[in-house]
Design brief:
Layout lengths: L1 E10 L3 E4 H5 L6 H8 L3 E4 L5 H16 L8 E5 L10 H9 L5 E5 L5 H14 L5 E8 L10 H4 L5 E10 L3 E9 L7 E2 L6 E2 L3 E2 L7 E2 L1 H22 L9 E4 L4 H11 L10 H4 L6 H11 L8 E8 L3 E8 L1
Parallel strand pairs: 4-5, 4-6, 13-14
Antiparallel strand pairs: 1-7, 2-3, 6-7, 8-15, 9-12, 10-11, 14-15
The structure holds oxa(dethia)-CoA.
Length: 321
Amino acid sequence: MSIHIMGTGSALPGRVVENRELEGMVDTSDEWIRERTGIGSRHVSTGQTVAELAADACQRALEDAGKQAEEVELILAATCSPEEAAPCVACQVQSRIGAGNAVAFDLNAACAGFLFALHTAWAYVEAGIYRNALVVGSEVLSKLVDWEDRSTCILFGDGAGAVYVENCQEGGLLSFVQHADGKKGGVLGGGARLLSNPWAGQQECQPFFRMDGREVFSFAVRQVPLNVEEALGKAGLGIPDVDLFVLHQANRRIIEGIAKRLGADLSRFPMNLERVGNTSSAAIPLLLDELNRQGRLKRGMRLVLSGFGAGLTCGACVMEW
Ligand code: UT7
């Protein structure tokens, strides 16, 4: 038993922030950002929440799959930027779309979150517990970004991407791998809430993302090819068998480095980071939805999905579309 993606959806907030606009806020330039990252613009929330974006993406995924919300048995929301600690984003999505029969909860593996949520959905379906799931990655990172820090504010964007998956006997998700290295947690993180109570007083916290960009860069270029090869090996496949590599959209140079290490032509690595930046857990399903709606995904095609992020976390899966 496996899972098959039957529908995709996405949602982006309407406000587009071009690199040029950032030039007026921090000491940077459109040329530097494009050359070092490949990013040209990003969407930024002017009020939309993680749950609102997630619900819109899920609604579109259901419509694409031709399914009703009441049929959904499981909703998994991957996010590292919820507005509130509770209720979880997945429960808010359930309420917004009217999926009254689903169980719903969140999962946080930062930028690898969607991938880990997809694998979790597979595990539930494989165990025979649920027959279908909505899996969504949604982020409003703009509230966690220090807009005075040029090394991070140029990278991130807001948005959501979702897939509706159903059980299948053949094809679908063929294999996956996932890894975590908590000792490297200091490389990328932030978003702390103030510890404030009568006993602690008010303690310092790190509200914004901080990052060792070079360290994350080399981790990604080193680790992602290993994950991809490991997942392909588990599926009994090799690099030539893959039609498209749908990778986390963090930096064009990272994707180029991964393609080179894998010995695969860059044309097999679709990208949308130029327009949306790094949307963390939303990046992979956002790109999948774009490819799906452009008609670039044909049944039977083999895809590799791979992501990495804070934690540090990373993983990959192989699927037949
Ligand atoms: O989902 C995972 C999230 N994180 C990532 O994916 C981050 C991965 N890392 C990266 O994408 C890259 O490391 C960055 C884009 C963050 C930085 O690129 P880099 O080529 O590694 O630059 P660098 O950090 O080595 O900095 C080179 C120079 C520095 O100046 P000096 O010390 O050489 O004078 C920086 O201060 O570029 C400077 N710099 C900037 N200059 C203009 C850093 N940010 C900027 C900026 N505009 N926005």
